[in-house]
Amino acid sequence: MNRRVLSAGVAGLAVISLLGLAGCSSGGSGATSAPSSELPDSVNLNGETVVSLFTSMNNDYYASWAQGAQRAVEAFNGKYVGLTNEGDPATELAQFQQQVDAGAKIIFITAPDPSNVPAMADIAQQNGVCFVNTWEQPTWTSPFDSGDQYVSYLTPNSEEVAYTVAKALFDKIGGSGNVVHLTGHPGATPDQLRNAGFDRALAEYPDIKVIAEQPGEWDRDAARQAMAGIITQVGVDKINAVFGQNDDVGIGALNALTEAGVANEDLPPITGIDGNLSTMQLIKAGQMFGSFSGIPQFQAGFSFVQALDYCKGAKVDPLNRMLNTGGIFVTADNVDDYINTYTGDNNPYDWVKMSRVAYPDDWDPQNEVNTIDMEAMWTMLEPKPANFTLPQAYSDALPNRDTVDAEWADHWKLLKN
Amino acid sequence: MNQLARPLKWGGGILLPIAAIIILIVVFSLLAPSFFQFSTLIGILRESSVLLVVAIGMTFVVLMGSIDLSVGATVTLSALVAATIAGSGNWLLAILAGLGVGILVGLVNGILFAFVKVPSFLTTLGVSLAVGGVGLWFVNGRPVQIFEQGFTGISQGKLFGEIPLIAIWALILWGIFSFVGQKTRFGRYTFAIGGAEAVSGLAGIPIKRMKLWVMVLSGALAAAAGILLASRVGAATPGMGDRLTLDSIAAVVMGGTALTGGVGGVHRTILGVLVITTLTVGLNTLGVQPYLQQIVQGTVVVLAVALTLDRSKLSVIK
């Protein structure tokens, strides 16, 4: 019995030590601070915990997301907590509930797929949590369905992005040839929208032929395996270009081509979407053609500021509850500028200046932001359900869409070029 | 037959898992005052529920000295089927269909294991891959949203305004199958087979039939867990049950059921579930970085098993 008590005590001490280490480590250390506007008391979080939930740190995109999230939260004197769900919506939902139970009032997320978003929004509404969501949303639904606490849904205009990238890729090979399309995770909102954009571009190039289309699951290894199968199926000489639905998918395709013995100078042009540092380095080395960056650091920080502003009393225009955010198409021509501005320890954003509450007259989004035409976006994915009607507040505000978009454009000063 | 393998008595061997839970609660409460509140208890109950239901079925399999690696895939497929049928508005049919999927998977496992005599590890591993593929094919890899409130209310409803219904269902199932494990012939046969299969056969226990029914039970409970999970999230997604396979095995072992069989019981599994869930909830409450969470969880699992395993009942450690 004494030995068992001693064993239990040793175990308890070990656990306490580990948790003490964990307690010291939670939040982590921030990067080098960039010059920032003065922090008014109206938005000073005074150490309040702010939570970001996202998929995984195994992905370069989310590493940048986490970096931006932490910088933005700490710029407002908040305590940043970031949790990953490894692609499991149920885990993310559980984390959301646990953080609400622990007292968090500002939570900004990106979900692995749309399935758990309504449940999280309901929890936010019931508990007075200011909630902003980026990327995933069930089709023909919106924040209006859940209540005011679901402040905004943000996403790059994935259809337009894919259209732009695909056209650039098709032009790169002279408007004719065979293209491999490696998609993302089936069912994910950006995957469906990017497919729509790719297809729109394809329709404009009758001499471009898609010789294979396989899911890349947003994952480098899954994409590599899919591409290896395609190479076996059609032969590497038949492939003139590769459209990767995100950067990891593009890199997976590159890995497969390299493993198949294709020399760097013979590689077909490959594109990605995300703007990860590793992709930028491959573009610089000439192994990839280009990538559209949604600037994940910006996406995280901007989504946090929207939630913060609402919590601090800002009124949100109905049209600003669904927003597209802009990005940059990076090729060899501008990759050095991109790397030196947006990656690694570079922190180009004045996060406090993004806040409408902190700077009501001269707030600055520091990126292109536009309101979303809800019907137009969802129609690209699915036919409109028979019983669907636009939310009344959104519908009433629609005539002002140009005005609201102009306001975003007029306030954008920093990083405009 | 009573001498072949006696299940543990209620009072013995459960103090250390309880101590582990208490230590975790104390430590987390000291590190994060917001942890020690009623809503955290509710949260732990809610988050434990799905794992507990899966672990109940796994306990019976492990007690027999076998393993079921297909529970995660069964959870997912049952959830996907139930969610799809719930879209028609008939939540009762959705539940029955989901359960039917689990029973069918269990039957396949049981027949292959008991009658074709493929070892349970290989049987359930292969079935897991196949069932996972069926799930992806069934929904074309896409999540299925659930809007039918009769279905979502199964898990999302509350009793007395606070107690999550999902926890009530899990506790009811735990109570029923704890009784089955301890007080019925079915339960005693499971222990006996795990303790000494050959001798049990000679004593007249229908080994093949027992293996079949235990696998069916495991599949059915995995399906029940899938229905509860889909109801809780409000959707079913491919792969949503994947993590439950290893988690349920860990919970069963941490609760004191030996992987070699014949030792432990369903009544103890709840303790293993609570250790895992309390740890996860606590680490999330502290906001511990994801990588560090895995280190802590792995360490605690090993420590908890090392302390709670009743080695006097094991002649061989593998």
Q: Largest interface: which pair?
A: A-B, 54 and 57 residues
Number of helices of chain B: 13
Task: Return the domain count of chain B.
Answer: 1
Distance between the termini of chain A: 72 Å
Proportion of residues in β-strands of chain B: under 5%
Main sheet properties of chain A? 7 strands, mixed
Architecture overview:
The complex is a heterodimer of chains A (417) and B (318). Chain A is α/β, with parallel strands linked by helices. Chain A has 2 domains: 231 residues, Rossmann fold, CATH 3.40.50.2300; 116 residues, Response regulator (Rossmann fold, 3-Layer(aba) Sandwich). Helix content of chain A is 42%, strand content 16%. Chain A contains 14 helices and 13 strands. In chain A, the strands form 2 sheets. Chain A has a 7-stranded mixed sheet with strand order 2-1-3-4-5-11-13, with helices on both faces. Chain A has a 6-stranded mixed sheet with strand order 7-6-8-9-10-12, sandwiched between helices. In chain A, β9, α9 and β10 form a beta-alpha-beta unit. Chain A is globular. Chain B has 318 residues and is mostly helical. Chain B has one domain: ABC transporter involved in vitamin B12 uptake, BtuC (Orthogonal Bundle). In chain B, the strands form 2 sheets. Chain B has a two-stranded antiparallel sheet. Chain B starts with 14 loop residues before the first helix and ends in a 10-residue tail after the last helix.
